Amino acid sequence: MTTESGSIRADLAVVGGGVIGLAVACEMQKRGRDVLVLEMEEPGSGATQAAGGMLGPIAEAQIEEPEIITLGLDSLARYPEFVRWVEKTSGGETGFREEGTLIVAVNRDHLNELEHLKETFRSKGLTADSLTSEQVLDLEPRLSPRVLGGLKIREDQRIDPRRLAACLAQALVTMGGTVLTGAKVHDIVVNGDKVSGLVALGNDGMPVRVDCTDVVIATGASRWDDIRMPAEDPGIRPIKGQLVRLRGETLLRHVVRSPDIYLIPQPDGELFVGATMEEMGYDMAPTAGAAFDLLRFGWQLLPGIYDLEFLGMAVGQRPAVDDHMPVIGPADTKGLWLAVGHFRKGVLMAPATASYLADWMESGEMPEALASFAPGRLSPAPAGES
Fold first, then answer.
1. pLDDT tens, position by position, 118-160
2. Residue 381 scores a pLDDT above 90
3. Arch. (CATH architecture) of 101-154+237-320
4. Strands, E, within 253-355: which ranges?
5. Which residues make Cβ contacts (< 8 Å) with residue 169, sequence separation at least 6?
6. pLDDT of 266-289, one tens digit each?
7. β-pairing, 157-158 with 178-181?
8. How many Cα atoms are found within 13 Å in the side-chain-facing hemisphere of 87?
9. With bands split at pLDDT 50, 70 and 90, how would you rate the model's confidence at 380?
10. Is the pLDDT reported for residue 92 higher than 60?
11. What's the pLDDT at 382?
12. For residue 281, how many other CB atoms are within 10 A of its CB?
């Protein structure tokens, strides 16, 4: 990156320093581009802060479209190598683990849901191991003795999203890229029919001009109209998520889920209990009701959380569009690219999103894997068509 006449020059500017934006930036820097990431706060300070870090496309197959499952499995398969590269390049640790996920039942309704989930797995060509109550408690003896049975998904993994974001930012800098924090982008600059740069405001309130040939928008759930850009709003809306953070004695080795709740042990000794999904606009206030429900369901599954230290609530905004599928690919203006709307799958889909988007940017040809996620699918239907 170079600075000339009060402006910054880079090949590529990525707007948004969450896991998606940073993964795209690192991939493009690896491929020889000079990359600048612009982030309003600190890397990973948006939805990443409240993300649980579950890498589980199979566990959630019952509620996902086939295209989401396929891209999720693709990205999951990339994770071990992705993490090795990130940790080696950054010198940090991401908290990556491969113990799998347990889905357990603590009442008859839960058992019925697990039977339905197993049928869903069979119909979609996915697998999980059926467990008796004794087998579940052998794996996780601190769970409630009320456990009636469960499933183990061996392929599922987990990671600490906050550590991952920090490592990605450091990896980018190590390779020669730049992360500019405190930069609020407000204008994408177009020359003719092509992007030529952007303008942001720095912490000091002074404008920062960036001259570049490509811009990737990876702004999470930020208000789309906060940036003047030559692209249609894909309909991003925030879905509020709250989770409880606890700390104390290590009670679990696996991610443990029930139809009501999930529990995620963290490498630093914390335990996450999550998470809500709320259509509350841009409200970021933690609520007593969410804490009550999460702790109640968590205690029913893992009674030992009663004695853990309550660290507080983490609140984030998941970026979603109407069909709950990400928007990945070129906007109408040449040189403007989108990587938004990953909803609850941003951390999981980061490796695949970065790789396929980089392929598209380099070749100009849409990878088949992104056909269902291209921005064009959101265009209004012609008159008379639904």
1. 998 888 888 899 999 999 999 999 999 999 999 999 999 999 9
2. no
3. 2-Layer Sandwich (3.30)
4. 255-257, 262-265, 270-274, 309-320, 327-330, 336-340
5. 17, 22, 37, 43, 44, 179
6. 888 899 999 999 999 899 999 999
7. unpaired
8. 13
9. very low
10. yes
11. 43
12. 11
Residue with tokens 């309003």: 40
352, 372 contact by CB (below 8 A): no
- CA dist 152 and 99 (Å) reads 10
Helix (H) or strand (E) holding 362: helix 346-363
pLDDT of 62 over the 60 cut: yes
Q: How many whole angstroms from its chain centre is CA 93?
A: 18
**Alpha-carbon gap, residue 194 to 196, rounded angstroms:** 6
Residue pair 275/343 in contact (Cβ under 8 Å)? The answer is: no
The domains of the chain are located at: 2-49+162-235+323-377, 101-154+237-320
Query: Are the C-beta atoms of 162 and 22 separated by less than 8 Å?
Result: no
For residue 306, give the amino acid letter.
Y
Q: Quote the CA–CA distance of 189 and 214 in Å, as a whole number.
A: 11
Per the structure block, which two tokens stand in for 100? 């799998």
Question: 274: exposed, middle or buried (C-beta count within 10 Å: 0-12, 13-18, 19+)?
Answer: buried
User: What is the per-residue pLDDT across 195-218, written as a single tens digit (0 to 9) for each?
Assistant: 999 999 988 888 999 999 999 999
C-alpha closest to that of 231 among 192, 190, 191: 190
C-alpha span between 102 and 223 (Å, rounded): 36
Residues 6+ apart with CB under 8 A from 116: 62
22, two tokens? 């940073």
Two tokens, residue 37 = 């990431």
The confidence band for 222, taking pLDDT boundaries of 50, 70 and 90, is: confident
2-49+162-235+323-377 CATH: 3.50.50.60
Residue 102 confidence (pLDDT): 97
Q: Which residues contact 107 (CB under 8 A, 6 or more apart)?
A: 146, 148
10 Å CB burial of residue 363 (0-12, 13-18, 19+) is exposed
Whether the CB-CB separation of 37 and 169 falls below 8 Å is answered with yes
As given in the structure block, the two tokens for residue 40 are 């309003």
